[in-house]
Amino acid sequence: MTAVGWFQIGVLLLAVCVAARPLGRYIARVLQGKRTLLTRIVAPVETRLYAIAGVDAKHEQSWLDYTAAMLAFSAAGFIILYALMRFQAILPINPQGFPAVAPDLSFNTAVSFVTNTNWQAYGGETTMSHLVQMAGFTVQNFLSAATGIALAAAVTRAFARNAVGTLGNFWIDLTRITLYVLLPLSIIVAIGFLISGVPQTLLGSTDATTVEGAKQTISLGPVASQEAIKQLGTNGGGFFNANAAHPFENPNAWSNMLSIWSMLLISTALTFTFGEMVGDSRQGYALLAAMGILLLAGVGAVYAAETAGNPILAHAGVDVAGGNMEGKEIRFGQALTAFYVAATTGLSCGAVNAMHDSLTPLGGLVPLFLIHLGEILPGGVGSGLYGMIVMAILAVFIAGLMVGRSPEYLGKKIEAREMKLAVLALIILPLFILGCSAIAAVLPSALAGLNNAGPHGLSEILYAYTSAAGNNGSAFAGLNANTTWYNTTLGVTMLVGRFAFIVPVMAIAGSIAAKRKLPPSSGTFPTHGGLFVGLLVGVILILGGLQYFPSLALGPIVEHFLMTAGKTF
User: Fold this and answer.
1) Secondary element (H or E) of residue 265
2) Which contiguous run of DSSP H or E holds residue 412?
3) Is the C-alpha dihedral spanning 215, 219, 224, 228 positive or negative?
4) Domain range enclosing 120
5) What is the three-class DSSP state of 217?
6) Is residue 81 part of a domain?
7) How far apart are the C-alpha atoms of 21 and 288, rounded to whole Å?
8) In this structure, are strands 215-219 and 412-413 parallel, antiparallel, or unpaired?
9) Number of domains observed in the structure of the chain
10) Helix, strand, or coil (residue 328)
11) pLDDT band at 219, cuts 50/70/90?
């Protein structure tokens, strides 16, 4: 590790925070229906859309109606995306002449983009037409991200309001987030990617002559527009199979830094939105502090592990002064590669600029564990915020037990109903991650897809189901997941990770919204100071450790001890 490397990481984090604070306040104004700089331009479009859809801008929904609208909208998105892939061979804007996508892969991919996971068991440039990439994937990148932010807004309103039965209107939140936030930001970031050299064209490919004189066909397409919302919406699905390690998707250091900045921007901004909407900015700072502590620890751990190199190579006489460079782009360096690895898994983004399968055992353990913690560091757009709020509820409940008081969070009592729903939401993910991994570890058809045996092979399986349940989408890449077993089970796991988690969270929001706010007293546990931040960090780590340490011990931890002993499996 070098001072220059940490300087690069620090500058990027500072750039994110500087932009996130005003953006968070802007998003709060949008969600509260207040005037913004874009109101004069966007409001007529917004009003027209409501008229076409028959939406009453003054009508609000209960938590059940809000959740039902979200589920219906997501189901419609799945059907449309599935149909686009199944019939792409006869649809226009298919310059490559790609055939229809297989049913199991279409199911997996449609679920993946609707749930904001963007798991890709295919090569984008060799499987999907430009129409599917633009009208399917890019559109869903906007809508799944907007859905997550809308849900976070509804949960935030539950704590901001006093004894009400409504949480807003899903259709209004979805429309405003898309028009006022995601579209303008995506245009700006897409222009930034274009300037840095990312292509944007409807051509299918171009031919190039190699230095040996041979002809090479290079895939092209509308990359910059998809890249922008891919990062801003923490979607992560790449236009190309190699994702952000591809020179067209991530051509240089500037595009690499813009990618990291973009993926962290909105999720970080939403903590400021939370503080603004509940009327106490310190609450947002506390959540951001807990997120930042754990994310920085993850960055440092990956950076240290990868720069330390592989002792097996050292024993073989290879100079490891440059660290573990396997599976990495030398254009970006160890520091920004480590930052990218931790950021994309602390978020639920899943974009990669290095192959996680090639990380050292401890370097690979970190992104795996960051997803295990619940994708809340700072998590996906919207989903990270409401996931962190669930952790905060658990933390204040534990604090209440320790001092013998009824726990409260932002003036709302946390009672048995909320805790039961919170625990239900939290146990769903390990149930599917560990359960499906255990079955795949003994099923011959699942084991056939492994590229490695032993503990690394187990890590590949565990990472796949962890990524699916966490709606992350990154992979260890040594696993051939394009099989009926993996396409089906990973698709179901993505659905559970997104919707089986949010339904109990929305039920918590409905219960909280109906309660009266209590004024703070001398016995109220403050949730904006360092003590609460420390408790929250501890709860997150202990919860993740208790649930996943045994599986991690059998995978990357065992592999690390083998590596340090100079052995391979």
Assistant:
1) helix 253-277
2) strand 412-413
3) negative
4) 3-207+215-279
5) strand
6) yes
7) 11
8) unpaired
9) 1
10) strand
11) confident
End-to-end CA distance of the chain: 28
Residue 55 domain-assigned?
A: yes
Q: Exposed, middle or buried, 207 (CB in 10 Å: 0-12/13-18/19+)?
A: exposed
DSSP 499: I
The rounded distance, in Å, linking the Cα atoms of 377 and 97 is 41
Please check whether residue 175 lies inside any domain of the structure.
Answer: yes
Task: Look at residue 296 and tell me if it is in a domain.
Answer: no
Question: CA-to-CA distance for 136 and 127, rounded, in angstroms?
Answer: 13
Q: How far is CA 424 from CA 80, 421, 500, in A?
A: 31, 5, 9
Q: The tokens of 562 are what?
A: 């083998």
Residue 219: which of 192, 238, 191 has the closest Cα?
238
Query: In terms of C-beta density within 10 A (0-12 exposed, 13-18 middle, 19 or more buried), how is residue 305 classed?
Result: buried
Name residues whose C-beta falls within 8 Å of residue 48's C-beta, 6 or more positions apart in sequence. Answer: none
Q: What percentage of residues in the chain have a pLDDT greater than 90?
A: 71
Q: Which tokens in the block code for residue 247? A: 């020179």
- Cα maximum dimension of the chain: 79
pLDDT tens string 418-456: 999 999 999 989 999 999 999 999 999 899 888 888 899
pLDDT digit string, tens, across residues 460-510 = 999 999 999 999 989 887 888 899 999 999 999 999 999 999 999 999 999
- The upper half-sphere exposure of residue 347, i.e. CA atoms within 13 Å in the direction of its Cβ, equals 35
d(CA 554, CA 558): 6
Has residue 251 got a pLDDT over 70? yes
Residue 399 to residues 361, 405, 406, 414, Cα–Cα distance (Å): 36, 8, 9, 11
Cβ 431 vs Cβ 541: under 8 Å: no
Average pLDDT, integer, range 120-136: 87
Region 504-523 average pLDDT = 91
Q: Which H helix or E strand runs over 205?
A: strand 205-209
- 482, two tokens: 């394009």
Transcribe 414-444 into DSSP letters. --HHHHHHHHHHHHHHHHHHHHHHHHHTT-H
